[in-house]
Amino acid sequence: MAQDKLRVGVVGTGRWAVRSHIPGWQRDPRVEVVALADTDADALAAAGEQFGVARLESDYRKLTDDPDIDVIDVVTGDRSHFEVSWAALEGGKHVLCEKPVHSDFREVIAAADLAESRGLKTKLGFTFRYAPATMYAAELLSQGYIGEPYMLNAYEQNSQWLDPQTPLRQLRDTADPDVIAVSSIEGYGAPVIDIMHWWMDAPLQSVVGTMRNFVPNRMVRETGEMTRVNIDDGDMWIAEFGGGRLASVQSAFVTVGNYPGIEVRIYGSEGAIIVRLVEEFGICQTIKAAKKDAVEFVELEIPQRFFPAGGTSREPWPFLFYSNVLRDFTDEILSGSSVNQGDFRQGALVQQTINAFERAHRTRAWVDFPLEAQA
Predict the structure, then answer these.
(1) What positions does the domain GFO/IDH/MocA-like oxidoreductase occupy (predicted)?
(2) I need a surface site. Which of 91, 255, 330, 374 has the fewest CB within 10 A?
(3) How does pLDDT run across 214-258, given as a tens digit for each residue?
């Protein structure tokens, strides 16, 4: 049965929650943020005061168990994503979760199965899927603008950890410190992998690639000390899709000129499209396109229908793009329809791709996809 308003509880009140999630929810008049939860009392109190939310809880289960809350938004540290999401689904809540839900795609599939079995909607924080430029490009692709897709190049480019003194929280550990741990491709590569699958519109068949640790010693956020941090701060991958289509993915913490940003280029039989989502010269996104009979790329104007009410490309990208994430999720829930893009099922596909990339690096070989087909 369709509702007319959503009551949202946000678990996690750190930087990303106060920069994009909470203000994004409050931008939509169909939503009320009714409660916040965090184990950090100072961060919790500050967020409550900043956004006028009176109910503050130290135990997230007070929110997941509350029958009057419709949606749980999970903005905790990565290691808590799965635990909180699972508890929310068991409590009958729709769930928005930052990526990754879990570092093992099989656990994400289990969460997707649980949500679907209970008629609940889910959504991953694939922020760049919801950029107006990305959505406009997807519409052009669906209209046949580039003809048959041939090749895609996707870049998740980030310079904020080029300086080893910049505090970094290691995302995933390995048992052996000499074995490179997954970080960039999982924490920052996921959005372009999501777009790659969406735009290529064909089954992924195999992958190969490699990871590098370019800056071995870094400041660790939790200790404030310089430490050996053996993570993939630079990656390159090749992916083969059905129909002979090819894609490449680059993810990095050390690419100058982006803080952070993505660029996706797709080329086809009739034309090509480039979407660049980087804050430059006062704007946060551009889309350029070319046709085979006019090979020069020209910038396109993004129709206003792809923006939230009053939105412009001069807004900070975390607020603009995330407002669209939350508007879309609100539309999906309140409509009562079966539509649910960027959900945990899509998250499982993206995580399985990351797991395949990692396996390709560790085995130094092409890895067939899907992974379930492998012994």
Answers:
(1) 136-273
(2) 374
(3) 999 999 988 899 999 999 999 999 999 999 999 999 999 999 987
